[in-house]
Design brief:
transmembrane, elongated, mainly alpha, membrane, 0% strand, transmembrane helix, 2 helices
Length: 61
Amino acid sequence: MSSFSIYFLGVVVVVNALAFGATLLGVPPLWTGIGALVIIGFGLMGAVRKTREKDDTSTSD
């Protein structure tokens, strides 16, 4: 499993836990879904940022 997969799997677990908690608190499903999508979006951006390879650009010395 790649680092990206592990990172994003963790994000999905957190989103599921938060959505379940929101449902138990009586948050409307529309807002639970919106919140889940926002967290997944941030998680996707974070996973890409953490796991991307650095560009091999030469710098002038």
